[in-house]
Amino acid sequence: MAEQPTTTQPTAKYRADYLSPDYTITDISLEFDLHDTETKVVAVNKVQRLSTEGAPLVLDGDSLKLVRVEVDGQSWTDFSEGESSLTINNLPEQCELLIETEINPEANTLLEGLYKSGGAYCTQCEAEGFRRITFYLDRPDVLARFTTKVIADKTQYPFLLSNGNRVDAGELENGRHWVQWQDPFPKPSYLFALVAGDFDVLRDKYTTVSGREVELEIFVDKGNLDRADYAMTSLINSMKWDEERFGLEYDLDIYMIVAVDFFNMGAMENKGLNVFNSKFVLANPSTATDTDYQGIEAVIGHEYFHNWTGNRVTCRDWFQLSLKEGLTVFRDQEFSSDLGSRPVNRINNVRIMRGPQFAEDRGPMSHPIRPEKVIEMNNFYTLTVYEKGSEVIRMMHTLLGEENFQSGMKLYFERHDGTAATCDDFVQAMEDASGISLERFRRWYSQSGTPVVKVDTEYLPEQKRYRVTIKQHTPETAGQKEKLPLHIPFDIELYNKQGEVISLQCNGKPVHHVLDITEAEQVFEFENVVEQPIISMLREFSAPVILEYDYSDEELVFLMVNARNEFARWDAGQILLAKYIKLNVSRLQQGEGFELPSSVVDAFRGVLLDENLDPAFIAEMLTLPSENEIAGWYKTVDVDAIHTVVGELESVFANEMADEFSAIYHTLTQDSYTIEHAAMAKRSLRNTCLAYLANTEQGNELASKQYTDSDNMTDTMAAMAAANSAELSCRENQMSDFSEKWTHDGLVMDKWFMLQGKNPADNALENVRATMSHAAFDIKNPNRTRSLVASFCANNPVHFHAKDGSGYAFLTEILTVLNSSNPQVASRLIEPFLKYRQYDEQRQSLMRAELEKLAALDNLAKDLFEKIQKALEL
Ligand code: B3K
Ligand code: ZN
């Protein structure tokens, strides 16, 4: 039976209300006696009072059965149990507090706290899951040394794991055994982990730069050992990279990663014992695509980098989440960029910003990277905290430069290692180490929304001056009306007609290409500009803002060819595409036909044929913005028009460049599959060509042949995706062949579920419903649900937004189930409803009605409560 979430009206917590704790716990010794429905947990805490005498000790607890309390070895009765707390009175200043609780891992469908994933026990404690294991000061500013003894049946659970070093082990009667772990580093409870199960283990070793020998172990389900190599390679690469680029070394003798199938998000950085969604560990060429491999590298890196940015220095309170997440995303992005293609990584990160992050910042859940008010903390593991948070770190990096930034990191660790810090502490360290003022810059932490930067330029030939007027303005966002000017690093470059860079000069002095925009309006007059220049702006996406500038087609085509950096070339292409997508959406709305000048096609043809460019970059240049990103350009979204225009643009490109696509497609064949970047780049371009060619006469033959010939999942999936989106006749055979081959493997089937979700056919919803009874589908598994349901609701806009409301009713059905079984997953799936105000009246009222239905659920979880309440606010 699923647990029922609390029914009382949830209350919000405010950042401004932070109080340091009355007590701390310096040491905790845990003993788990693992049983499926009745696990006994004994916690012995060394408690130390920090405040005045008389303050009660209020511990957090959730869904726990309290068995006994002892203080200094004596039974203690002076306590009271609240709905989510245990208040213990009249404690001495220091004591040893024993608490025994009983929990039910098997009934834990929330996948928070201790639960069962397949046959294994595992934990997820961030943000507030530890309180589902024992009563505790479950807040990140209480740092304790953990000792953990795990007892379980030896045959079923030969591996018993926890944080730190394995210090002891033994056998018991009745087939049980135990292992004891000790973590020497004090840590908050959210970093605690326990795993018990039977696994295959991939082992390796790493010697750190100062000579520490570290055992590396990756635990996977039995039979999956041939899918763990890339995770191991990525781990070793991460350890090396962090030493080289950040001077940071690993600090324990063992680093373990466990892959589990039931997991609410990507992975978790528990000290010395990462728990991973198997999606980010398991890969071999026949089961995983190149994108999967890149995801594994990034997530393995991300969790490893948390060992310093998150674990050694943690967060004072959850409002500071971006302190560890924004910084660690920045670090993982740099890792992927240093090892792979920097421009391609940047492009993909910017796509996430301009698409879903900007959308979040426009919607009812808009919040600054350091939120002010939270009802359910799990709702704030957002694109804003993570991705925009990383952009904020990146801006500091741009303003300070690598050397100053690294001095800032060093100072940050000198000051805060072993403690719980704040975002302000980080900025202060950067400021103190560099001597560069970040006073106005700090506003990025408190102001939500996406700034709009409007630029006007004027060339003054007589004076040989080029005047650039830059205005910034941040539109009002949910819950925050007043906006102030921000410190925006604005990277520009000027070119002459020959494509040469014009050096920037103001008042007779050279000027850096990153302009400091700090006011609502600023004017720059560049001198010695002898001809009308062409300006490239917001290079590298130097700030998370929307740029408004009236570029001509000629200027954009010029930048696509001549801009010195690849990101700027891609961006010019995107602006050009955006112009014609917008034009054609309004033409369609007025009953006019599709129109695209041949000069635009020629510009993209030029890129396609440029042999000096990295094929992976060419593929990005030719990838159209998603329908969701396009939706974000409008106050009222016309899903059908957007879909039609994107389809027409794709087919015009396909037909106009069919010969070139076809020639490149046939040239880029590879003899054998490798996961080197050069090989991935070729596959990426070849499969982009296939996606276009799918819209031409040759489409069915090519997709069908590629599916049959393919010896790797990248090419297989590309063939299927092309057949799916172009509705080719080979689709059906491919889909049934694939399902037959992979039914036993949920992780691989996720790719198939995703295609069912994105199916453009008219009966898409009917198919999705039918797919829910597929043998490999399980609504309790977050990966399955996301692959099918989220891909339909979030990435199949035409069908999800069907005018009859059928897509909306479907989402409500799913949310109603997940509200009880796994509200964290429900809360991610509800996102498309939150944007209801951006649609026409009919759709708005249909979606609103669904939100109201959900709001009326009598067991509404606070995860959904918080989002629905904000969405329905007038
Ligand atoms: N810190 C975890 C995320 C925890 C999410 C809790 N709902 C993974 C990460 O960001 O590395
Ligand atoms: Zn993280």
From TrEMBL:
One GO CC term, this protein: plasma membrane
Q: Which Gene3D superfamilies match?
A: 2.60.40.1840, 3.30.2010.30, Neutral Protease Domain 2 (1.10.390.10), Peptidase M1, alanyl aminopeptidase, C-terminal domain (1.25.50.10), tricorn interacting facor f3 domain (2.60.40.1730)
User: Which InterPro entries does the UniProt record give?
Assistant: Aminopeptidase_N-like_N, Aminopeptidase_N-like_N_sf, PepN_Ig-like_sf, Peptidase_M1, Peptidase_M1_dom, Peptidase_M1_pepN, Peptidase_M1_pepN_C, Peptidase_M1_pepN_C_sf
State which Enzyme Commission number(s) the record gives: 3.4.11.2
Which molecular-function annotations from GO does this UniProt entry contain? alanyl aminopeptidase activity; metallopeptidase activity; zinc ion binding
Give GO BP annotations, semicolon-separated.
proteolysis
Topology with regard to the membrane?
A: Peripheral membrane protein
Domain (Peptidase M1 alanyl aminopeptidase Ig-like fold): residue spans on this chain:
449-550
Enzyme type, top EC level: hydrolase
Peptidase M1 alanyl aminopeptidase C-terminal domain location: 553-873
The alphabetical list of record keywords is: Aminopeptidase, Cell inner membrane, Cell membrane, Hydrolase, Membrane, Metal-binding, Metalloprotease, Protease, Zinc
Do you know which Pfam families this protein is assigned to? DUF3458 (PF11940), DUF3458_C (PF17432), Peptidase_M1 (PF01433), Peptidase_M1_N (PF17900)
Q: Which SUPFAM superfamilies match?
A: Leukotriene A4 hydrolase N-terminal domain, Metalloproteases ('zincins'), catalytic domain
Q: What CDD domains does the record point to?
A: M1_APN
Residue intervals of the Peptidase M1 membrane alanine aminopeptidase domain: 230-443
Q: Provide the protein's localization.
A: Cell inner membrane
Annotated family: Belongs to the peptidase M1 family.
Entries under NCBIfam families matching the protein: pepN_proteo
Known role: Aminopeptidase N is involved in the degradation of intracellular peptides generated by protein breakdown during normal growth as well as in response to nutrient starvation.
Q: What is this protein called?
A: Aminopeptidase N
Which organism is the protein's source?
Photobacterium sanctipauli
